[in-house]
TrEMBL record:
GO MF, any single term: transferase activity
Record-given protein name: GNAT family N-acetyltransferase
Keyword Acetylation: no
Keyword Transferase part of the UniProt annotation: yes
Species assigned in the record: Idiomarina tyrosinivorans
Assigned keywords, A-Z: Transferase
Amino acid sequence: MSHSTAFIDAIDTIPSEQWDALFPASEPFTQHAFLHSLASSGATTARSGWQPHHFCVWQGEQLIAAVPLYQKTHSYGEYLFDWPFAEAHQRYQQPYYPKWLGAIPFTPATGQRFGIHPQAPQWLTVEWLLQTVADKAQQAGIQHLQILYPLATEAVQAPEPWLTRYDLQFHWYNRGYQDFEQFLAALKSRKRKIVRKERQQVAQLPLSIEEYSGDQLTAAQIRRCFAFYRDTYTKRSGHLGYLTEQTFEQWFTRLGQSIVVVAASDANGWVAAAIFFRSETTLYGRYWGCLEDYDKLHFELCYYRGIDYCIRHQLQRFDAGAQGEHKRLRGFEVTRCYGLYHVEASALAAAISDYCQTERQQIDALAQEFIAQSPYLAEP
């Protein structure tokens, strides 16, 4: 049977069951409900500079492949940033935007970026999707096409002239620990003391800490989660963040069982919360907020409670988000992430290629330094 391709700007026109059949069932960020919530709440629109432009492959009426794709007019909210490329184009008076971005908006989490139906024809591969989208971009006059945080198994399938960038994050890996104490026993003495001391400091605060599944929260608690998110963005960067209150409401309504909230309360209610998403294998730390500056509470809610959750629920990995070398002191290990870039039509393609090669070498060297400074007694 012949196939057809199309770019879809409104994901609600795609049957959710067909979209979700292309991606792992438990992975939250590629689910139709997650992406639709972003669009319908106003977070990903042409006005916000995140115009949905999902690439879809059909066989008759059946969706057999898709790439979550956005047409962007800026580089905000990406985390594997390309500001040096954009600034160089500006200096040389060369166009950079609009660009096409294959990514989960505002989410620096590695995951499947190429959805392929299990019964799709054998010719339908990641390499074919990359080449086809690149051809479509060239036909549309788009000079810059990027795929952020794909799986390593997807990244290695990128054909020339796709360029690869590396990024480093710090993830926690479950080595079959029975409880938090067994995890601590695996750490070097100094790191173990740091964790114990920080947890003891939080235990002495006049706060109670509770864990919730997202579908247990009241409307008022969901609004409080959004208020924490917005407050954190305001403190860090001076802007209100990328998401809306409606985004949170829709996520908790549609994906509540994939959300975990750890909240700290005083006599008047919640004073801090960490918000996680989860799959069958991985916990993802996403958002955090606090009304007052309680010493070490961030580490307790965002890291230690997350580790404890993974141990209790036998999850394999804890991705606590981008950046944060301080995580290494607390049992997180350096992990390589990937970005793919197609810039063949750019006037600065050669310079970008050189930049990526140098950057990969530097990041590999830095990763080796971090590996040599492992927080564990022996290499797991």
